[in-house]
């Protein structure tokens, strides 16, 4: 079976370019304009337009097929829109800012035959990270043991999720795009992850979380973004579903 090859955000082999330019503090950190994505006759995104301010934690919610993951992948530059565009940090060429974005896929893109540290060292080399302590630092940040030597393929699902988050944090991005980070994670570990995300938001990172477990983010998320049938249908400050408001 074909396995998607883990790689930095562009999922290709071209070198990463860090060419982000200063952005006015009042400008949105992410701007989505008339975004449409067609898969054959199916419209995963339908003319989505939105602005997202920096330094906030966004929960992106909706049923299966609502367009959540497609929106996240398009913001990450992994999916080419059929129409419209995404601007990140003032730039529409997403390759030029990919060093500023960390993406956590669902399912995780890790090499099962490698240990967690070996996975991170591999991706650190792709990012040109030479700090020998960085890999251990991000593993410790997600509450895993840097000395753990067994292959990732033997990790529990919760451990895999935390390792995938560590990979997204490796290059210290300004923006985190996380697809189902709490999937199959025990409640205690999930709450620890939420606490870590809130701390990173408080330190200035902008975080977008696609999840079916939005109640975990109640009290932590700054905004809940509700999607349905490929469109953003509402944005709320609390978790109360739109249909009961």
Short description:
The chain is built from five helices and nine strands; from the N terminus they run βββαββαααβαβββ. It is α/β, with parallel strands linked by helices and 245 residues long. The protein has a single domain, classed as Rossmann fold, CATH 3.40.50.300.
Structure description:
- The chain has five helices and nine strands; from the N terminus they run E-E-E-H-E-E-H-H-H-E-H-E-E-E.
- It has one domain: Rossmann fold.
- It is globular, with a radius of gyration of 17 Å.
- The chain has helices at residues 68-75, 116-127, 134-141, 157-169, 187-202, and strands at residues 30-39, 42-52, 57-61, 83-88, 101-104, 175-179, 206-210, 223-228, 231-236.
- Mean pLDDT is 86; it is low at 1-24.
- The protein is α/β, with parallel strands linked by helices.
- The strands form two sheets. It has a six-stranded mixed sheet with strand order 5-6-7-3-8-9, with helices on both faces.
- Helix 5 (187-202) links the parallel strand 6 (175-179) and strand 7 (206-210).
- Helix 3 packs across helix 4.
């Amino acid at each position: 079976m074909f396995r998607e090859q883990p790689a930095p955000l562009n999922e290709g082999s071209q070198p990463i370019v860090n060419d982000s330019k200063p952005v006015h503090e009042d400008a949105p950190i992410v701007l989505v304009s008339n975004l449409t994505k067609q898969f054959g006759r199916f419209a995963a995104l339908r003319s989505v337009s939105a602005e997202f301010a920096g330094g906030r934690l966004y929960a992106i919610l909706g049923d299966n097929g609502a367009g959540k993951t497609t929106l996240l992948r398009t913001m990450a530059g992994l999916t080419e829109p059929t129409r419209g565009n995404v601007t990140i940090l003032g730039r529409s060429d997403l390759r030029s800012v990919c060093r500023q974005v960390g993406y956590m896929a669902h399912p995780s893109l890790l090499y099962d035959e490698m240990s967690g540290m070996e996975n991170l060292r591999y991706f650190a080399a792709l990012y040109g990270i030479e700090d020998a302590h960085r890999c251990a630092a991000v593993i410790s940040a997600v509450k895993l043991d840097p000395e753990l030597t067994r292959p990732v393929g033997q990790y529990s699902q919760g451990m895999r999720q935390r390792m995938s988050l560590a990979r997204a944090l490796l290059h210290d991005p300004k923006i985190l795009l996380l697809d189902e980070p709490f999937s199959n994670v025990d409640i205690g570990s999930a709450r620890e992850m939420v606490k870590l995300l809130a701390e990173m938001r408080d330190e200035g990172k902008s975080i977008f979380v696609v999840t079916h477990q939005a109640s975990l983010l109640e009290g932590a998320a700054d905004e809940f973004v509700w999607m349905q049938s490929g469109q953003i249908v509402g944005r709320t400050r609390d978790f109360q579903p739109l249909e009961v408001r």
